[in-house]
Amino acid sequence: MGFVKIINPDAKGIALTARTFIESLGIDFHRIRGQGYYGASVMSGVHTGVQTLITEMVSFPVPFVHCGCHNLNLVVNDAVDSVEQSELL
């Protein structure tokens, strides 16, 4: 799809930027059926996060799931952090 520069990094700015970009591609924004983001509250917040604002824009439930790739990244980082570094001889 593409990359978009985010001018206003709060939830409202991100949601509006996403909507504008999707519509600029000729896609009907009201046809979205799901959302996937990483877990930062600005994205996933249930009261004022991007997922909530987008659901309000389309007036019907649009399920949110935490990004699987980000979950994997968190697991790998935790696994690596638990390994002690040793010197190579």
Structural features, described:
With 89 residues, the protein is mainly α. The protein has one domain. The protein is built from four helices and two strands; from the N terminus they run αβααβα. Helix 1 crosses helix 3 (50-58). The N and C termini lie far apart (48 Å). The mean pLDDT is 85.
Short overview:
The chain is mainly alpha-helical.
Secondary-structure element string:
HEHHEH
Helix- and strand-based class?
A: mainly alpha
Q: Can you summarize the main beta sheet?
A: 2 strands, parallel
Question: How many structural domains are formed by the residues?
Answer: 1
Assembly category? single chain
* Unreliable parts: none
Shape: elongated
Short key terms for the protein model shown above:
89 residues; mainly alpha; two-stranded parallel ribbon
